[in-house]
UniProtKB/TrEMBL annotation, chains A, B, C, D:
Transmembrane segments: none annotated. Coiled coil: none annotated. This is 3-deoxy-7-phosphoheptulonate synthase. Keywords: Transferase. Residues 87-326 form the DAHP synthetase I/KDSA domain. SUPFAM superfamilies: Aldolase.
Amino acid sequence: MVIVMSPQATASDLATIVALVETAGGEAFVSRGMSRTVVGLVGDLDQFGTLNLGAMRGVAQVVRISVPYKLISRQSHPDRSIVRVGGVSIGPGTTTLIAGPCAVETPQQTLRAAQMARAAGATLLRGGAFKPRTSPYAFQGLGEAGLKILADVRGETGLPVVTEVVDAHDVELVASYADMLQIGTRNAQNFALLQAVGDAGKPVMLKRGMSGTIEEWLMAAEYVAQRGNLDIVLCERGIRTFETATRNTLDIAAVPIVQRLSHLPVIVDPSHSGGRRDLVLPLTRAALAVGADGVIIDVHPDPTTALCDGPQALVHEDMEELGAVMRGKSLWQGQVLDGFVPSQ
Amino acid sequence: MVIVMSPQATASDLATIVALVETAGGEAFVSRGMSRTVVGLVGDLDQFGTLNLGAMRGVAQVVRISVPYKLISRQSHPDRSIVRVGGVSIGPGTTTLIAGPCAVETPQQTLRAAQMARAAGATLLRGGAFKPRTSPYAFQGLGEAGLKILADVRGETGLPVVTEVVDAHDVELVASYADMLQIGTRNAQNFALLQAVGDAGKPVMLKRGMSGTIEEWLMAAEYVAQRGNLDIVLCERGIRTFETATRNTLDIAAVPIVQRLSHLPVIVDPSHSGGRRDLVLPLTRAALAVGADGVIIDVHPDPTTALCDGPQALVHEDMEELGAVMRGKSLWQGQVLDGFVPSQ
Amino acid sequence: MVIVMSPQATASDLATIVALVETAGGEAFVSRGMSRTVVGLVGDLDQFGTLNLGAMRGVAQVVRISVPYKLISRQSHPDRSIVRVGGVSIGPGTTTLIAGPCAVETPQQTLRAAQMARAAGATLLRGGAFKPRTSPYAFQGLGEAGLKILADVRGETGLPVVTEVVDAHDVELVASYADMLQIGTRNAQNFALLQAVGDAGKPVMLKRGMSGTIEEWLMAAEYVAQRGNLDIVLCERGIRTFETATRNTLDIAAVPIVQRLSHLPVIVDPSHSGGRRDLVLPLTRAALAVGADGVIIDVHPDPTTALCDGPQALVHEDMEELGAVMRGKSLWQGQVLDGFVPSQ
Amino acid sequence: MVIVMSPQATASDLATIVALVETAGGEAFVSRGMSRTVVGLVGDLDQFGTLNLGAMRGVAQVVRISVPYKLISRQSHPDRSIVRVGGVSIGPGTTTLIAGPCAVETPQQTLRAAQMARAAGATLLRGGAFKPRTSPYAFQGLGEAGLKILADVRGETGLPVVTEVVDAHDVELVASYADMLQIGTRNAQNFALLQAVGDAGKPVMLKRGMSGTIEEWLMAAEYVAQRGNLDIVLCERGIRTFETATRNTLDIAAVPIVQRLSHLPVIVDPSHSGGRRDLVLPLTRAALAVGADGVIIDVHPDPTTALCDGPQALVHEDMEELGAVMRGKSLWQGQVLDGFVPSQ
């Protein structure tokens, strides 16, 4: 940590800071510059944090030097991790396709979507039983009935299940059915929920907050890890920006950035980020090319009947190409997909 | 709702849309323009929503016309509402000051802060017992012990209590102590929590999500209202933007905008938005001038010891001026406050 | 400036940095922390800038300490400045109303708008002869003919003229007619234009870039000042954010922030920021309450015929209230303006 | 265009709108919905635009249906275009590497950088002679001397030259040396400059504004095209968001989105977007995988001496891998690049 004194700081102000730091067990190194005086602190960062140095008279700026996360950082764990979900690996050495319907609507719809997913090479099934909807009047999901459907479909297809949990109260229930618990973007800083899934003993998929910084995302993972659960997969799903052409702006650079900061696997959601079916495959190619450990994709057997997010779902006709992309056979995209007329 | 067909849409595409709308019990009015065909829909918006028209062949754009919230809208309730909290009114006809420490740390600190607040004219005490912290290693609040302190201080000062609840599981506990339940910005779309406070039978203060649109904010209020609880006060606390000079960017225009859309009272948080003590009073003046129904402000008897957000707390010396501002005696600010040297 | 070494930095890396700094004539103070080594630099910031220290092996972070602007900073000029425009003062001690039509369309429209402005207490007339339009097919302004109209109207009303110049090539022409040259938000980093108006010998109004940070805005002012022209008024006009309820988000906190950083006057544009007629007076009150040195407002005698930005213009019926607000007689706004039905 | 009337609109308000539209030569189709009345307009959009319908009494919302650009749209020109620069093609069928130093500093540095570029497979050389710097105290470029150096290096290497022009006044000069004129992000809405390069008879590279929407970017291209110059290449270089981990957030989805809306080629700048050397190759892979027509990359023989943007430049050791990526031999990136320690 480094403290920058303001130009008007007095010798007494400086002495107060130094004394405070030393009382807290640290050391203060004073550098008197031409325009500013700077104090370098050596000692326990957590202790300095409680001193609230920024509020002290004469202090212009406090610059933190270390990263605030530990368990999930690559400094503490230099090799990148593999997370296993129901026997399926996510991480270095594999590229994982997670696919399925955005919402579990009926057993037939979910089964057909799972079959589509498997045909494209998916090794994990996603499906929402609890849907966070911006409107209280919209379909909220089938709840436990939806979890049962997912379990049945797992039985039929062999695909382990990833599903969202929206309330700490439901964690035990969801964990009894699912192989991996998903935390949605709107709960990215629901710390009670993060702690609850940390305690649940199941792998966790942590979506980035729609306006979460990379650091906040990693701190959310640290909340989970702090409970002893390091089986965390991070999912970049686009961030909120001024651009309205897409639902969110996929922050493709987040993948390599986070892979350098954390040992956890990082996947991409090309469905919710772009929000358009015609962008899913291009963004999937980009995700794989940039080094993502996998992608999570919406598929639906009949999107015109979908109860949520229909416009972004991939359909039967897309499965062959998706499979080719996942196997690295269709990474080079020199052509624009002309067949599909985009909405808006 | 209006559907815009794409230029490549065929007559068959159009016929399909019209048939679908009519099957859903609505009427479709087709306008053939020079460059586009547009279909106006008349009927039940909720039913059209489930049709997923945006995914249908030939559809370029779906434009929604009505607002999606009802109970909290001014259309349904033309007069602006007054919400009563422990006997204190918030709404048209009054300007309410809610003040107190960001976090409840000790009984003495909380009592002194409450006395500061009252001296400035506060009629409600705020204080955090459950603190949502971005880092799992930071002080998370005293929990129930903090609630007890707040209740004791209420007893001594007569100030009803506003405090944050972070988990649906804690709603009952917090409601047994507090006069008003606060939902923080990071839980602005924690729908389970919104429903729980909607059921709790206490007034609710709903902070805008740090990257929440006004519409999402109002839909969050609708979640609460839908449970039968219309005692909701909306709090604008700044939004996340590219500007790093402040923690958040106070969206001052949100106050009049929301007051036109909803009958609920709207207050402003000049402490967490600006994040700097020297901005609190200027932003308070702006808030009152623009018509906010009140403000909620951090005060601390000794910010150098504060366990969170020390740099933004107002101190003893500020109370007199705060009181003058609240009474409308110091609204005209032609001078720049020169005494305080801002951090950064 | 402070350099933070990365954990993997070697002793050789550190020695290289120290040698480089000393060669550049500076001093390097090394602090070896528990997790990081930090080097404080003392010397000429401009020289350190050219060293490109951030690219050197072992360097994790470079933290700049001083502010990069000088001439316009309050450190160099502690008292706030008054800028005079055609005899009218803008700055501490006065609150200036600048008003007029967004675009100069006809002599009658401009004269009537100027009369409206003066009736409300305006001391300066604004009007666009050169309009930057996002579409090349939209009305681009009357050019020199528009400047002539403005000059005629100045003759009739006595109001000095503020008008936008969009191209360095036109600066001389515009300066021959106008009393103050305005740089629009889209040219906030058009450095050639900034230098040209710096040379023009007329006061300058510098609008903040729609996505410009406060620092970039101040550096743009420094471009002008560096040419010897310190007669600069800064205008906050809203920034681009994710919120679509308004054209821009008025950053009201920018006013006090900038007034602490720079001695230049700071005004607010409540017309282009909110983009709605019903927000103009509320935002004007907020601007004055927060301490702005003035406001610049769109008025139009008949907005239904306006060639640009009609929905935000104030009309005849608003002038009386505007005048009251400017005189401090209507600052307290406890009521919501119910008469006007907002668009959207 | 569709007009949505507000709930309080009267029959007289509606009649006024209809009359206005008919007077302008259009047709108005009125649909009376359950909650709103909607008027569909058929006729000349440009004429409706001047009517300023949004300001009329009773109008709640005006929805525009057509896209405002024509010459550059795919509707007007269904096949994607190839733009030729000094004999080199950019567009469908080729993937173009444009590389060189961010700023032209010395003849040797520029020649060495050009040789590095060519070794990696570049067919065009970029280099800045006129540098837009946020600070007036920073190196602004060598001007015409820089153009001469670029011309000499073209002579030696055979690489045609792309260079930025910052002022309309310099267009003729720059066009006399360069093969392609670049418009930088800060001039994305410098309409005078856009028109000047439109007239210059040379191909244009148009960088997206750092906070420009896709539509504004396309309208900027329309400004150029309207002068008769359709040799335009669009360059996505990242947009400004709340995330501070990178200089800008690369909007990778913009590539396929724009390729569907416009026939112009679209390239990506992975250097200025990520702002970090260790992100350049990952982002290049992502750009090629998503279908970009090319990339433009900073290279420098010795970044520690670079006068601008040193931290993002690729160096000698990167050229082999860059070449492999461009030839499609290294698109699959399953590993994280561990060798480089990122700054910050």
